[in-house]
Amino acid sequence: MARETLQIGVVVQRCKPVGPWAQESWLPVAALPAAPDLAVWSPLDASGAGDLRYAGAADLEFLSGQTSHYRDNLVSGRPSIWVTLRPEGDAFVVRVASADPYEGESMADGLEGNVEAVPMPAAICAVVEDFVARFHVERPFVKRKRDRMGRREQGLE
User: What pLDDT, in 10s, does the model give residues 57-67?
Assistant: First the structure.
C-alpha cells in the first residue's frame, strides 16, 4: 500500500464566549499548503487583536487504499480538510488532520476536542488529485446474494 505525507499549517480563530459561564474557545478555520516558519500561537491578523493564530503543523497522510474517499471529497463541491484541536492546559494542540471525509466524520463522533472541516486550498487539492490519479484502482460493486436455505436444511424441521 502506497503512503505519502504532506505537512500543512493550521490557522485557528478565537470564538467569543456565548454565555456568562462559557470560556473562550478556538476553532480551526483554515489550512495552509505548507507549515510556515512561525512559532506556534503566533498572531496572524494585521490588527494585532490575536483573533487569528497559527496553531501549528499537522501531517496529512494519504493511503492508496483510500483514494475513492479522497475523490469523493474532491468532487463534493467543497473539498475540505478535517482538523481536530484538543485542549491541553491553557492552549489547544492540533491533534490530527485528514482529507478523508469518512475519517473526518468519525473524528467528529468522538469527544476528543474541536473538529472542523476547513476549506482545502487549491495547492493541496492538486496534491490530492495527483495522488488519486497515480494510485486509484476502480473496484466494481458486487452485490452479495443471500444464502437461501430451507427450513429442512437449517435443521428446523
Answer: 999 999 999 99
Residues 6+ apart with CB under 8 A from 155: none
Q: Residue 145 is placed in which grid cell? A: 446474494
For 130-149, what is each residue's pLDDT tens digit?
A: 999 999 988 888 888 776 66
28 vs 14: CA distance, rounded Å: 9
Q: Which of 82, 76, 141, 130 is nearest to 106 (CA)?
A: 82
From residue 51, how far is each of 42, 110, 113, 120, 149 by CA, in Å?
A: 10, 26, 19, 21, 65
Q: Residue 140 phi/psi, 5° resolution?
A: -70, 145
